[in-house]
Specification:
Layout (H helix, E strand, L loop, with lengths): L15 E5 L4 H23 L13 H27 L2 E5 L2 E6 L5 E6 L5 E5 L2 H6 L4 E6 L13 E6 L2 H19 L1
Antiparallel strand pairs: 1-2, 2-3, 3-4, 5-6, 6-7
Helix pairs in contact: 1-2
């Protein structure tokens, strides 16, 4: 089954110019890092004595094993849900809109008109740099979805490849659409 269903929401005379599939490995790495930190924190909390006077460890191996199994199952379920959501995640740029397809089991769409985009920014994280794949996040701001300092953009193309080249393309499309509207 083709998971990319963006063609179903196109308007009359709308054509898909670019389609993007985000990178999933970054999500996996972040989840694994969170898992390891949680595991370390819980193990330290269980194994370090509550009192400085008492150097006895009153924790049995069963409690530690149960904690490790519980945390592992929890993060396994989280990773499974992230993988299910990833299957349906696509970004598209048409001649009229920026479109995000998402959804865990069903498929949801959100879009903003290209002519309404007033702000486009690029964020390349430390992990993006470490992976060296040229990935990053492009954020879009409009009058209805502004970008504020305390709150990031609500409309993002997350973990896309060739982020700087795509930023340039998005900016050119947005600028061209705004000059055509005037």
């Amino acid at each position: 089954m083709n998971r990319n269903q963006i063609e179903k929401v196109l308007m009359k005379d709308e054509k898909v110019l670019y389609t993007y599939k985000p990178m999933f490995i970054k999500t996996v790495i972040i989840t694994v890092i969170c898992y390891l930190f949680t595991l370390l924190f819980v193990l330290l909390a269980l194994l370090i004595p509550a009192s400085a006077e008492s150097m006895e460890i009153n924790v049995t191996g069963g409690i530690v094993a149960l904690a490790v199994i519980g945390i592992t199952v929890f993060f396994g379920v989280v990773l499974l849900l992230l993988a299910l959501a990833y299957r349906n995640k696509f970004y598209a740029v048409t001649n009229k809109r920026f479109i995000i397809q998402s959804g865990l089991l069903g498929i949801d769409f959100s879009s903003i008109p290209i002519s309404g985009v007033q702000f486009i920014s690029v964020n390349v994280s430390v992990l993006d740099k470490i992976l060296g794949k040229g990935t990053g996040t492009v954020s879009f701001g409009t009058v209805s979805t502004p970008v504020t300092p305390g709150q990031g953009a609500k409309f993002n193309f997350l973990n896309i490849y060739d982020v700087y080249e795509n930023y340039r393309i998005f900016k050119e499309l947005s600028d061209k659409a705004q000059t055509e509207d005037k």
